[in-house]
Amino acid sequence: MLMKFSKTILTSLGKKFFMALSGLALSGFIVVHLAGNIALLYPDKDPFNKYAHFLENLGGLLYFAELLLAAIFVIHFIFAVYVQLGNWSARPKRYAAIKNARHTSKKSFASVTMIYTGLMIIVFTILHLLHFKYGEVMMYTTSDGLYVRDLYTLVYQFFSNIWNVIFYITVMILLGFHISHGVWSAFQSLGISGKRFTYYMQKFGYTFAVLMGFGFLFLPIYIYFVSGGVL
Predict the structure, then answer these.
(1) Under CATH, which number does the domain 14-89+106-226 receive?
(2) pTM across the whole model
(3) Could you give the percent of the chain with pLDDT greater than 70?
(4) Orientation of helix 60-90 relative to helix 12-37, angle to 10°
(5) d(CA 9, CA 139)
(6) Which helix H or strand E contains 139, and what residues bound it?
């Protein structure tokens, strides 16, 4: 059984299957992450900091969730590289130009730049973790006497710098392109397809990308102007 499973993973369909499954899982995390960040819109820092404090004090459950998320991230990256290398070897000649194809072709700017936008997202994720999760620790006491890390202020300080805002916006645009193709094609890789279904999944993928992109773009822009950001 184990040998059969390992052989399945190494097939072209197996690689796409696990890449798709892990990609959808990461898309779900994006939704949860954005939902939590909405608390940054409150002028009161307590809601966001209490939310962050709650997560940090989940103990073993938090470590398990982080390890699981990291594993999903690594799985997605590894299989994405395998699939991309397979595509390149099957098509030695690169596209002369990156543009949307017509008729029934699914080639688009988003589809042919998936590996590059993915790499950029990985670099951004590492920097994001280093600055916020493992960055400066500022503490304060909430209105009800809870002594917690002031992550809210750290975020506002970061986005008071226009260059940080520009960098963040650029990466979020790339993320939008990445998931606009990734979400709907994941269902296709999982074998859930059909002429009508694929059409609606494409629309869903584009809509999902726009909503997530707008959400993550709005936050730094809002914070920049509220915090009295500087050039």
Answers:
(1) 1.20.1300.10
(2) 0.82
(3) 86
(4) 130
(5) 47
(6) strand 139-141
